[in-house]
Design a protein that fits this description.
alpha+beta; 9-stranded mixed sheet; 8-stranded mixed sheet; 11 helices; 20 strands; binds flavin-adenine dinucleotide
Length: about 400
Amino acid sequence: MSKLRSGLPYFLIRNGLPYTYPKLQQDISTEVLVVGAGITGALVAHALVQAGVDVVVVERHSIGTASTSASTALLQYEIDMPLRTLREQVGVQVADRSYLLCARAVTDLLALSRSLGPHTASARNSLQYASRPRDVSGMQQELHMRQAIGLPVEWIDASTLRERFGLRKSGALFSRCGAEIDPYAFTHALFQQVIAAGGKVFDRTQVDRHARARNGTYEVRTSEGHRISAGHLVMATGYTSQDLLPKPVIDLDSTYAVASQRLDREELWSEECLIWETANPYLYLRTTPDRRVIIGGLDVPFKNAKRRDALMPRRTRQLTKAFQKLFPEIPFEPEYSWCGTFGKTKDGLPYIDQDPRDGTWFVLGMGGNGITFSQVGAAIVRNAVLGRSDPDRDLFRFDR
Ligand SMILES: Cc1cc2nc3c(=O)[nH]c(=O)nc-3n(C[C@H](O)[C@H](O)[C@H](O)COP(=O)(O)OP(=O)(O)OC[C@H]3O[C@@H](n4cnc5c(N)ncnc54)[C@H](O)[C@@H]3O)c2cc1C
């Protein structure tokens, strides 16, 4: 699959190309090589350099311009699969831990963003409304289950939902844990800190082959024939990683997003919380620092980029209508629309594991929580490289 996105992704337009990075033009060796410079590669590299590890990052295109630039970047602890369903699929312990790790990742990402300097993220509460009245009883079970493990969630009934948020729905789960981020600016800001701390970041440098030598070192070859030797190899190669994996684990969908014109603060919904729903696929909404509304959703299984892109004009109209139906009082004119391909897994959880064949690490955040999972993955990889024991090491294995 060549192109992960099309159209005019708002965050790419907003930031342009804020920094330039060199291309690798010689052989090099390093303690850790990270392949892929989207938000995942940035988080992994940043966690490692902060721990004093020598890191090189290589990216075949421009930094952050694949899925990361298309992301609508709602940061939520809520995994695409409700806790009650996830418990049935993967067991109570893994399900509960996954939810709790995502909640911690949201807090950690906000703290990280604050430490970077430029404003790249804002804390936001998260509201999931009942798409149909019959969803309410399952949501209330979900509420009690989440509250029992300490997640900050409460119930909002239909009349409060109408008065406080202007939403005419039967009820909603309201979580005081979430954030919205500018994923592209955040990625560049992380890489600037990686470089300032001594890490090296190269773009236009494609890895073609890798193998592990007898002494345990990884020998990597770029498409221009340069060699990179590394003590550890981390693939943060996103949704195009399927061919590198020990087994097929990624299902691809196409998703669509629209950003509106700028609005006045009083025109937006209360608290500008993140909004999503119980339907599957679901609509998702957020605001931007310059007070636009972004609405996304209407996912379909990915066939090829041409078919995905052909649907964009229709999806823009449908998302605009969906917003107008949800919030008839808020004016919405579509200004930027785009689409992207994203990977899902059967249980909504990521793959963060070593390839059993040669020990290469993969950090593959999946589904609606791709970014929070990347943060979880960065901590797992950092602990492994530092030789620290980690109770979460086996949670997201390929052989689960
Ligand atoms: C429209 C849309 C909306 C989304 N909304 C959300 C959301 O609200 N919340 C959320 O958490 N997640 C969301 N996601 C998912 C999230 O965007 C992804 O999980 C995240 O961007 C993945 O980042 P990444 O760095 O792993 O992948 P990418 O950004 O795709 O980066 C991988 C990089 O690896 C490089 N690469 C691959 N192979 C090689 C090679 N051989 N050599 C060198 N470089 C290589 C690629 O060029 C690419 O730049 C959304 C995704 C889309 C498309």
